[in-house]
Amino acid sequence: MGHLRAGGYAVRTEDLDDLAPIKRKLGVPSSLQSCHTAVVEGYVIEGHVPADVIDRLLRERPTVAGLAVPGMPVGSPGMESPGQRAERYDVMAFDRQGRATVYASR
């Protein structure tokens, strides 16, 4: 959350015991699910998506449901770990039918 705040986003958190119903309602494909789920200007943001990639999404306004970083890759925002090399990972765009494509790579 700190990464998004530092990127200029106003963040409101809501701690829930079970996010599965929210993820289903928002249409996050099970293969792309991660630890955090957010909605930014109508787009679903799942997992540790970098703020600059969200900025790009909001500039370009593609016809997608949202973006996701599946899992919790080391080096993604909030998952930095001193002494560990950052993993390469993809930020996936997904549509309402559950189809996913690579939107950005890190």
CA-based gyration radius: 13 Å
Distance from first to last alpha carbon: 19 Å
**Which of globular, elongated, flat, extended, rod-shaped describes the shape?**
globular
Strand content: 15-25%
Can you list the strand order of the major beta sheet? 1-2-3-4-5
Order of helices and strands: HHEEHEEE
Number of β-strand runs: 5
**For the report, how would you describe the main beta sheet?**
5 strands, mixed
Q: List low-confidence stretches.
A: none
Roughly what is the average pLDDT, rounded to an integer?
Answer: 93
Discrete helix count: 3
- Structural class designation: alpha+beta
| Helix share bin | 10-25%
User: How many separate domains make up the residues?
Assistant: 1
